[in-house]
Specification:
This protein is α/β, with parallel strands linked by helices and 308 residues long. 29% of the residues lie in helices and 15% in strands. It has a single domain, classed as Rossmann fold (3-Layer(aba) Sandwich), CATH 3.40.50.1820. Strand 3, helix 1 and strand 4 form a beta-alpha-beta unit.
Length: 308
């Protein structure tokens, strides 16, 4: 797929499914790194000598939504896990609302630069939603930097795939107006309600999503600027015709109740990448796999990223 920036929602996938407790941080809280000509905020988990995993988030999603305990479980399996704030999210470089000073290819370049600077030039790449589109692009255009691909809640794009589910279309048609972006509580509420229609009907944990949304609002330089992702142009060439060229081992993880990319998108993606494995998570929507699935997802990623 050409990485899709113009999507019909705030692609802020939530970690849901009964998670309890405070949102936690990793071992390098909010370190700023200079890569690709900008400052990005990065956090890491685990030993720097371990195999590297780069987590690439969805559009308008800061690293807060990659649950710290999820990252720690991967690190406990012998991985060095890197999560980061995209431009215009979290503490990374911020641009005026409505005026992104970058292209989609720059967001791709940020991931490449982080692999070069923090992973020694090669990493296991895990991408969710838009991040999955970036990961596909890396697999096609930068194969030397990709040890394995894990593609979550994403799509190869193109024709012949089911459209957005009716329940999501209805929710988007009735979406609340944007908040006063200077009102912290209003921003938190807006982020929570933006997540609700994308989760599986049984996997939306409102209390947890509100907790993460509060952290996002607390640490984001300019919450309104996250809208800039919908204005970004030039996401690169359409990679779907070239997915058969991908040589990195690929794992596709997708929810059976994803209303944005129904599961047929995952099946197509797995079929078009030679040798790709597919895991369908029952009841999960367009979201990071909830913690109720981690006993399946974390071991699967660790097996997938194990030395071959």
């Amino acid at each position: 797929m050409a990485v899709t920036w113009h999507t019909p929602h705030r692609m802020l996938a939530a970690t849901t499914g009964g998670h309890a407790g405070a949102v936690e941080t990793g071992t390098m809280t909010g370190a700023m790194v200079h890569v690709n000509g900008v400052e990005l905020c990065v956090e890491t988990f685990g030993a720097a000598t371990a195999p590297k995993i780069l987590l690439i988030a969805g559009a308008a999603w800061s690293m807060d939504w990659w649950d710290a305990e999820f990252c720690r479980r991967l690190a406990a399996g012998g991985r060095f896990v890197i999560r980061y704030d995209h431009r215009d999210t979290g503490r990374s470089v911020s641009y005026p609302p409505g005026a992104p000073g970058y292209t989609g290819l720059d967001l791709i370049g940020d991931a490449v630069a982080l692999i070069d600077s923090l992973a020694g030039g090669r990493a296991h790449v895990v991408g969710l939603s838009m991040g999955g589109g970036i990961a596909q692009y890396l697999g096609v255009e930068h194969p030397d930097r990709v040890a394995t691909l894990t593609l979550m809640s994403t799509s190869p794009g193109g024709d012949g795939l089911p459209p957005v589910a009716d329940r999501l279309k209805a929710a988007l048609a009735d979406q609340a107006p944007e908040p006063d972006w200077t009102d912290h509580d209003a921003v938190v509420e807006y982020l929570v309600e933006a997540e609700r229609p994308f989760a599986g009907p049984a996997t939306f944990d409102e209390a947890y999503v509100r907790e993460v949304a509060r952290q996002v609002a607390d640490r984001t330089v300019s919450p309104e600027s996250s809208k800039n992702h919908w204005l970004v142009a030039d996401g690169g060439e359409d990679t779907r015709p070239r997915l058969g060229e991908v040589r990195a081992p690929a794992l596709v993880i997708h929810g059976t109740e994803d209303p944005l990319f129904p599961p047929e998108h995952a099946v197509a993606l797995a079929n078009e990448i030679t040798g790709a494995a597919l895991i369908l998570l029952d009841g999960v929507g367009h979201q990071l796999p909830p913690c109720s699935t981690w006993d399946v997802v974390v071991p699967a990623i660790l097996r997938h990223t194990a030395p071959r």
